[in-house]
Design goal:
alpha/beta; about 35% helix; about 15% strand
Length: about 325
């Protein structure tokens, strides 16, 4: 039922990310947007789009780091897609598709008077950006794809579905913390338990009755119910090719089960001009919490902004 899901107002994962709620599409639906830095005419912001069931809290550290590297007044927008985080669930559940999410991003950019931006998308968020490239190519000044390509790895979808099902149900706070630590430990080997606990709170919380509640619409689980490990998913190379005119950066976490290595290598072959980077010792979502892993994106952003500001060369007489 519309409006039933709501993130707790004091949830720690959102404490440093105040949002504006923007009406988008259906009059009963809103999207949550966090704005850092100074938006102004002619400035190219960074717009971050999280993964399938994820929300903007995955970009918490990235937001501060990239602004320190590019400039403290660099505008950065973090967005929760509908059905995630603090955005409304969709009234029409059949509209949970990348093409409609892309149209929502167009409206968000119009609301904030953004005519061109550098987009950063993780996982499904990157697939939304591919759809955006087909829908509104002039809006994309540059794009960074992280663990995102024209085809998802079905093994990752099956593991995600199974993990989310295992989590569901009544738990104690200690029991939930222990379960998340086991699930996330193999994805982030060597990470301190406090970091694993933080990651857990970015997608779930424990309500007052001791039940695990998702920070996303449960209908998203139904959409991946039918996948099996050996499924062969149709590659959407035409959508990837829609980004051909735009400056691009491609990143892959070393331990991801969302983007197969052979797909990533094919992406690099098709876009030999694009920057590429491997984030070692992590799975999806990328943590983006260190200078080492954020600096390549900051370099990419600086180069895109520099090229945009460069005056066009005059034709020789």
């Amino acid at each position: 039922m519309f409006g039933k899901r709501a993130a707790p107002p004091d949830h720690p994962a959102f404490a440093s990310l105040p949002v504006q709620l923007v009406a988008v599409g259906d009059a009963r639906e809103q999207m949550a947007v966090h704005v850092a830095g100074r938006l102004s005419i002619g400035r190219m912001p960074i717009v971050c789009v999280p993964g399938y069931h994820r929300n903007m809290s995955d970009f918490t550290e990235f937001c501060g780091l990239v602004r320190r590297m590019v400039g403290d007044d660099q505008p950065v927008l973090l967005v929760d897609l509908k059905g995630r985080g603090r955005s409304s669930d969709r009234v029409d559940k059949s509209w949970y598709v990348s093409t409609i999410d892309a149209r929502d991003l167009v409206q968000i950019c119009a609301t904030f008077a953004i005519d061109s931006a550098i987009f950063v998308g993780q996982g499904y968020g990157g697939q939304v950006l591919m759809a955006l490239g087909a829908e509104r190519p002039t809006l994309i000044g540059g794009v960074a794809l992280i663990d995102s390509g024209p085809v998802s790895d079905p093994r990752g979808l099956v593991r995600l579905r199974n993990n989310l099902k295992d989590i569901d149900g009544p738990r104690s706070a200690a029991g939930l913390r222990s379960m998340f630590r086991r699930m996330l430990g193999s994805d982030y080997p060597g990470a301190p338990e406090t970091l694993l606990d933080t990651l857990a709170t970015r997608a779930h919380y424990l309500d007052k009755r001791g039940r695990v509640q998702p920070l996303f619409d449960r209908h998203l689980l139904k959409l991946i119910e039918g996948f099996e490990h050996d499924d062969v998913l149709m590659a959407q190379w035409p959508l990837f090719n829609a980004l051909s005119p735009m400056p691009m950066m491609m990143m892959r976490t070393q331990l991801t089960d969302q983007l197969r290595r052979d797909v990533f290598e094919e992406m690099m072959k098709r876009r030999r001009d694009a920057d590429s980077y491997i984030i070692e010792g992590q799975a999806s979502p990328a943590l983006l919490n260190s200078t080492e892993d954020v600096e390549p994106i900051a370099d990419f952003v600086r180069q895109v902004i520099k090229n945009r500001a460069r005056p066009p060369e005059r034709a020789s007489a």
